[in-house]
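Forum: Protein Structure Q&A
Topic: Joint prediction for protein chains with partners

I've read a bunch of threads here and the consensus seems to be that you should model interacting components together rather than docking separate models afterwards. I'd like to see that in practice. Below is the full input, 331 residues plus whatever partners are listed. Could one of the regulars post the assembled result?
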Amino acid sequence: MSMTASLHTLQLRVPFKIAHGTSDTRQVLRLQEGGHITEAPFVPYYAEDPAETLRLVSMPVLPPRLPRAAALAFNLLRHDIVCTAQGVPLRAMAAARLGEEGRVPPACHSLGIPDDLGVFEETVGRLARQFRVLKLKLGGGDLGLDIATVSVARMAAPEAALILDVNGGWDPVQAAPMIDKLAGYEPALIEQPIHHRHGMAGWENLRADLKASAPPIYADESAQSAADVAELAGYADGVNVKLLKCGGFDGAVAMIEAARAEGLGVLLGCMIESSLGTTAAAHLAPWADWIDLDGHLHVLNDDFDGLRFSGTGELCMPERPGIGAVPREGL
Ligand SMILES: [Mg+2]
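Posted by a regular:
Agreed with the consensus. Here's the joint model:
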């Protein structure tokens, strides 16, 4: 059976502003073979060229090293074919290495850096009626806005677990005092406070500057592979695991294995992608401490039906073999 590759443009509901910049569309790579279809996103952060990736995956003989989006789409395609043939969901592949499924954590909804705190407050209050975990993007360069954002969210959602994602937007000198200030709002965790370019020395210094009572600090951009996870142990309390980072489901499983071996927490994340992409990642939810799988909720033209969130913010997985997401009728 022959495989076809294509690019697909996702339109964002509202431009999503984070420390790396603002986007209103994202491209994804799709691979299809028979009834099997998989997706991998392109993100500005990795600067992979969608057209060049499409050219490479369409060659009669694949190059030995593929861009990470291509590697992920192929890895998922192989697993989807095998799992479907065996009649098991994708997570069966993870269970073989990670053991019995644990309790799936409550789902999280992310909010970009706010332009208008009044609108933001209203949005937080509305989302908190469904989601018990909210992720706030910080690190846009205005430390006062960062503090106001967390303060407003805490007032609007007193019961919510707040994940603060700085995307590396704080200077190493600012990071420890900011963490200390924000600790008063009792965040569940703070993600990637300093830029990954500061390397392990940056993490070592940050840890030395933090009080013992600091909230848990998770690494995202600094944790790209299982080897990074092992290196971060001692400095970070947990890591954000995403399928795209390590170019596949197996690499993500290896990151979770490494995190567990080091006693680190696991936040399972995703990029902005359709339900096809977030559903694939969601198969790892039973082995995560936190899940941030709302990438498809930011997409206006989500053309797949897969994972869903219940009215009380529980993750509901499709009961189908393989990835389990199917094209939505009429799109
Ligand atoms: Mg992050």
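The pocket of magnesium ion is lined by residues 165, 167, 191-192, 220, 240 (CB under 6 Å).
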